[in-house]
Amino acid sequence: MSDMLGHAEAQNDAAIGIAIETGLLQTCPIHDDSLLPGPNDILEDAYKLASARFKAGDEELTRLFSNQRELTDRIKRVVELRGDDECGSCNSAGNA
Ligand SMILES: [Zn+2]
Fold this sequence. Notes:
Elements: H1 4-21, E1 25-27, E2 35-37, H2 43-55, H3 59-64, H4 68-80, H5 88-92
Antiparallel strand pairs: 1-2
Helix pairs in contact: 1-2, 1-4, 2-4
């Protein structure tokens, strides 16, 4: 359970969850593993929510991240990894 890969994935999942909650990211309505830019492009909003949760002692976040900075860095990372405006899976389904 404590392998590094699993831990990194859990950190990503938590960061993605916060990004989706604030509208920074959204998932394709058809492919829920496909991350797209959301309606709210303000990274700061996700940082604020993350910081507030961390400070409040959120059990999952404080277990996964040793400090707030680590959490906000991870959010920045997952947002940078998001795809284009269009879902790659929908595109490859051939509706071009
Ligand atoms: Zn899709």
